[in-house]
Amino acid sequence: MRAAALAVAALLAGCARFQVGFGRRVSDEEFVLRSEIGAYYQEVGAAFASGSADALTGLFDPGISKPMTRVQIRAWAADFFEKHGPARFEVEKLDFERAGHESAVVELTYRVTTRDGDGSFGGTERDRLVKRGRRWSVASWEKSP
């Protein structure tokens, strides 16, 4: 199990940058959960790279309402991709506040870069994620100071 978790971590490290603090011993189970959540943010990157509003919207929990509903997220994404085309989503830092089997809270620092440069943005936010079946999704987020 540990070998599989390390292989997943090596793969994630090569595809996206995310930091995992090892100030304390992390169990194999927690390591796997953190790797799954890191993989979720890789999916976000793939959705931005595809320029698909539907792909991006599909990564949010159906019941999301804070700060936007899925309908509002889709409208924003469609407008964003129409104006700027596909973009690059990069995780600069990912800190885990809590990671469990059904939910997690992370602080995410990210950057979205558009080809035209006009739509580029970034920031730090606190994401609350939920797991439905085998899929993680964002249930809410708020900007961090």
Would you give an account of this structure?
This protein is α+β, with helices and mostly antiparallel strands and 145 residues long. Helices cover 39% and strands 32% of the residues. The protein has a 4-stranded antiparallel sheet. Strand 1 and strand 2 form a beta hairpin. Helix 1 (2-15) runs parallel beside helix 2 (28-50). The radius of gyration is 15 Å and the shape is globular.
Short description, anyone?
With 145 residues, the protein is an alpha+beta fold. It is built from 4 helices and 4 strands. It starts with a helix and ends with a strand.
Radius of gyration: 15 Å
Percentage of residues in strands? 25-35%
Q: What is the 3D shape?
A: globular
Fraction of residues in helix: 25-40%
Key structural traits:
32% strand, alpha+beta, 145 residues, four-stranded antiparallel sheet, 39% helix, globular, disordered N terminus
Question: How do the strands and helices of this protein lay out in sequence?
Answer:
Elements: H1 2-15, H2 28-50, H3 53-57, H4 70-84, E1 87-99, E2 103-114, E3 121-132, E4 135-143
Antiparallel strand pairs: 1-2, 2-3, 3-4
Helix pairs in contact: 1-2
